[in-house]
Amino acid sequence: MESILLGVLLSLVLLASHIQGAAITHETNLVWAQTPISLPFARSNARLMSIPGNPNKWMSASKPTVNNIAAPHFTWGFRALGFHWEDQLLFWSEGTNKKIQSVFLNGSLETTTLFTGTSSEVHGIAVDWLSRNLYFTDGLYNWIMMTSTLPSRPGYKIVVQDDLQSPHGLAVHPARMLLFWSDWGTRPKIERSNLLGQDRKVLLDRQLVKPQGLVIDYAKNRLYWVDSFKCTIEMADLNGKGHKILHVAEGSGFFGIALYGNYLFVTDKKHGRLDIYTPQTRVKGFGLSAEPWGIVMYDNSTQPGTSDACVEKNCEQLCVYDALLGAKCLCGEGYVPEDPESKACKPSEKFVHPSHFYAIGDSVCHYPANMADMSLDNLTLSTQCFLGDKQHSPGYQTLTYDAAENMLYLFSNTSKTILRLPLELGAKAIAIEGGTGEVKGMSLDWVSGNLYWTDATQRAIMVSKKTGKYQRVVLDRLSSPVGIAVHPGRGKMFWTDHGHLPMIKASVEKANLDGSERESIMSGHVWQPNHLFIDFKTDCLYWTDSLKHHVRKLDLTSGRITVIYEDDEVKFYGVSVFNDFLIWTDTDTLNGVHMARLDKKEKVRGIIHPNVGVASDLITFDPSNQPEQSNPCSENVTSCSQLCMLSEQKLPKCFCSLGYTLAEDGFKCYTLVVVVVVVVVVVVVILLHVLLLLVVVVILLHVLLLLLVVKAVVVVVVVVAAAVVEEVVVRKIFQMNLSPTKVQAVDLDITNMVIGIDYDPISTKMFWSDTTAHEIREATIEGKFERPVMYFNSSGMSDGLAVDYINRLLFFTETGNKLIGVLNIDKENIYTYIVSEDLEQPRDIVASPIKGYIYWSDWGDQSPGIERSNMDGTNRTFVYKPSHKRAWINGIALDTDEQTLYWVDAAEDTVNSINLDSMEVKVLWTDTRAHFFSIDVIGQYLYVSDWMKKYILRMPKVGGDLVPFGIRNYSRVHGIRGYNQSEAFTGVSVCVSSKCEHLCLPKEGGRHTCRCAEGYLLSEDGFTCVTDSPSTTTKKQRISGPSSPSSPRASSLSSLSTEFSSSSSSSPSSSTSTKQTPASRQSTARPDVTATVSKLPVSMGTTKRRSPTFSTPSPNGDNVDVVVSYVPQGRGGTTTVPAIHRNTTVARSTSPGKSAALSTVTVAIIACSILIILVIIIVLFAYRKKYIYKFTHGKLVEDKSPSTYYQIAFNGQGDQVTFDSGGGIENPTYDYLNQPKDADTALTTQAP
């Protein structure tokens, strides 16, 4: 009867507390939070209630004193409570404005905000009074956070996040450095860890349903809690032992629990009661006529021990006290220590995770994990979005991530490029895939390191390593694939397809990660399925449907499909789930990103972007949603040399990328030089092997003497009619046999972008220009002996290469420094510049070895065109000069038999030709949707690369249709160069008898010029070269390029070159670099252009190697004379030019019956030698075929020095963002960067 009367009295006091009451003061108090029960005649505010004094005294009193602090507004809602006795602070969570706040219990009613951005479900607070840290649980974001109780120390830290589903109660034992919490989840449990969330241990996970509030008895080392579902009060020791149910109160709704001595104080939300128990019995109960929440016993006995170690440590942000090790400074999320021993913190360069990213227009926007509850005041696109580039309009639309490497992957629809971006300040995006179609979905298999994406243009699903290496098609012939998600644990990939109505319906499908066992998940009941998301915590698949206006969920365990959220006004596109929140992008009137609570199926926030592009893909960068998993394709487990993907029954299977073949062992990938007529060669060997063995001794000497001729024949057998193709973003060089079409990758570890390429059949070497490393490199066609042969300065880059394998020269355009140069293929570090004036953007270059000409294209703005000069740069003349400046002349190709030059124009989108005799220009093809880049002529066809196509194009060189040729799944093709033995140049170099020490450069009329390498001067004898400085050239040493006309280098050009005729030597004569139009051959430069390159340093490497010397003496020891016939420009008839002997000889048949006659003995020797070589080829081929998988193969690596993408930046003013809902709270990530914790709205109370 006494307790009933006391409850009624207490209720009356509480009902009148909005009129009178006293503030809570610093003394022993039982404090609880409560929210009013709505009454028709009154509206009351939430309050913090207290009964002051020792409970042993006021429990026996008939009228206990009740004090309160009222919220400043009726919408406030106090939830969990905590306190710090020594500092006289009371803490609470506020569910409406979503804050952690405090008040100083000295009579003041001014509040301080410690943390902003919680959800409304913060049900547990615990204070470490020794370290002065506050911990709290968040039941919607499913984490436990720590922040300092001191207002002067900003910062927060997520201490527990993984494997939390619904954390509620919380308690701390500072002396033992232990943190305890309850988690409802699918498997309810009580856990503990140290104060930083480490060394986690599950104490109890049985006989629990909804464990709520926790409290520790520090004297007896006991843990007490209430279970709101079981209506129980329970206990165990601090190790989880001795679990016991103390009390059962049927029908109750327990929430909070507090301890004082032997008393347990419990709040009952369901009945609005405050109940008092001992471990043995129930003592009393009070009806509150309100809904009580958290409860604490504010008393010094419940916080034993004191320490000022963390105060004295004076850490800038956080401090944790260890009784054995003392105080230790910590930095909060988004900060790192200035040094290992520092007390100060500096902003981290890395993004804080978990966080949300979404692509919209030309930007990617980023918000912290608590986006649903953060303040949206004063936000702009420039503060939340990055990578914005309105000028280039990249059009980002697809995202995925790699949590382990802190890497964001994104697709630019404008450049058709997949990029990878380290998420740290100052980082730059690096292209890993290019030349794709429209990539609408991406997903990373983080276990195997494979990146999957859908290509709507190619109607395919593609895969590569996450660095961009080893791209291949997984599934093709799809309809219109959009979203994709992969599940490494199940070995499955899931994707959506819009179909093509009415014939092909939209669908959601799945298959193994290698594309096998494809099957439909849902078809017919989906209209426009878009992106997908897999929640690995619940093992559920989600996808959006923009025409059905809903989001569906597939439980991957049960197979059940349900609609979890729908809104007829929403056009759902991107989707993500973060704990209890659903996030999506809307592409319609609410263009932007939106959030809803899954438990209540109600929207909580929307951020709308007006007039800044259409919102597209969305990801939540959550490391916990890429959990540690293992399968046979794990990167540290698989034996596959390129790609490993799970197939049927989750068995691993190795795959190779384009141009590679899987070896017999099933693991290694290899590539071969393109081979033809292999069957014929094998038959010949079988019939004649006995004869060959008999004659081998007789002809061995002749074989050695004819090594060059034989080697030329071998090259014909190996690479006849093969095109060398450079593929840009995949960064591979391919060989392609033209009949039949067969592609093989050149086994090279190419790390940067390659533009120009050409082939030397004498040494079987390729040369290519690396525009990122600013160098020219070489390697054999087998991918061996790769090395740099030319270095440029940081401004230099070569776009075009031309090999003259008769004269052993390599010509190159130097676009960055506006130069054209030449280097000696067979001599180390021998190069010079032959054209240095009146160039704007020299692009491609070709050589005519017999006539001594070079041709180059220039796509500059002022005077684009195609020019020709002698190989020493003299007698420059325009071959083609367009009548307008809108020309973008890219690749060029020369047909010496037909005396025709071909080129592609990327501005006019045309393929063109000009007859060098009649100067007649023809437009062979026009395609307004093309971006032609390179061209070459092989036989009767032209081969063209087009950046807008994923394949090579071919057309008859006389005109006709330009059609796809070969495979169609390149990324973007750059350079093309072909070699055909039947078209090989036949002739003897005019430099055979030359005494030039460095460079012999042919000219028209069978003459040549001696030139010295950069850094050398021609001596008085006109042949030898002497250094012009005492220093020697070393690798990557910067050497000055050509000087201006007024410099000593330019004015003494005659000392650098000597001209010789084809018949006999003449005295040295000066040779100037002249450039003429067809009407004039006098001036050295166009009068309207002034160009100087006097201070353009160019470097050249001096990697030491012994260059092979090629010689082809006749059987009697004399050089072979070869007569070369050609038709001079503008004349009829045939002129015979005496050939000049040189040690390098390569045959080219210009027409049947016009090659040099050989003696019968020589022919017989050559025939036998060829047979022996064929035997050797077959043996070597068989050996290589058997042991090919023992060879190592190069791997592409990412570009380390990009310069064309955008830095992450958070700059100044920008476009405003609008919101479709009001309210919100402050964003902790950004506020802590700029603002200290400050006072908030004052609480109120009245004196009694």
UniProtKB/TrEMBL annotation:
Residue ranges of every copy of the EGF-like domain listed in the record: 309-346, 632-670, 990-1026
Lipid metabolism keyword on record: no
Residues passing through the membrane, by range: 670-696, 703-725, 1156-1183
Region (Disordered): 1028-1117
Swiss-Prot/TrEMBL keywords: Disulfide bond, EGF-like domain, Glycoprotein, Lipoprotein, Membrane, Receptor, Repeat, Signal, Transmembrane, Transmembrane helix
SUPFAM superfamilies in UniProt: EGF/Laminin, YWTD domain
LDL-receptor class B repeats: 88-131, 177-220, 449-490, 491-538, 764-807, 852-898
Domain of life: Eukaryota
Low complexity bias: start-end ranges: 1040-1080
Annotated InterPro entries: 6-blade_b-propeller_TolB-like, Cueball_EGF_LRP_Nidogen, EGF, LDLR_classB_rpt
Compositionally skewed regions (Polar residues) per UniProt: 1108-1117
Signal peptide: 1-21
Name of this chain's protein: Low-density lipoprotein receptor-related protein 4
Species this chain originates from: Elysia marginata
